[in-house]
Every structure is written in C-alpha cells, then in structure tokens.
Amino acid sequence: MAGQLIECPCGTVLRGDDLDDVVAAAQAHAKTVHEMDLTKEQAESMARPG
Ligand SMILES: [Zn+2]
User: Fold this and answer.
1) pLDDT by residue (tens digit) across 6-47?
2) Among residues 8, 10, 32, 37, which is most buried (max CB within 10 A)?
3) Cα 49 to Cα 42: distance, rounded to the nearest angstrom
4) Cα 37 to middle of ligand 1, angstroms
C-alpha cells in the first residue's frame, strides 16, 4: 500500500503508512507546533499519496 503525506503550510511534511497514520501525525504536529486543533476531516483533505 502506498504511504500518505500531508504538507503543513509551515513546510513540514508529515508522512504515514496509511491515511489514519498521517492524519494522526498531522494532528499531533498541528497541536504541538501550532497549538491548533486540526480535525480529521481537515487533515484528510490535505493528504495525498506520497
Ligand atoms: Zn506546521
């Protein structure tokens, strides 16, 4: 299965083995780095194969 990636507007690229994995990584990044709550829907809309 192809991995997934989400590129944060700050330039950080989050990668995961699958959609759930990369969504969790992006949510953790948004929370810790940007003090922002990213919803699952928002994260999923930013995800692409990579
Ligand atoms: Zn970021």
Assistant:
1) 999 999 999 999 999 999 999 999 999 999 999 999 999 999
2) 8
3) 16
4) 12
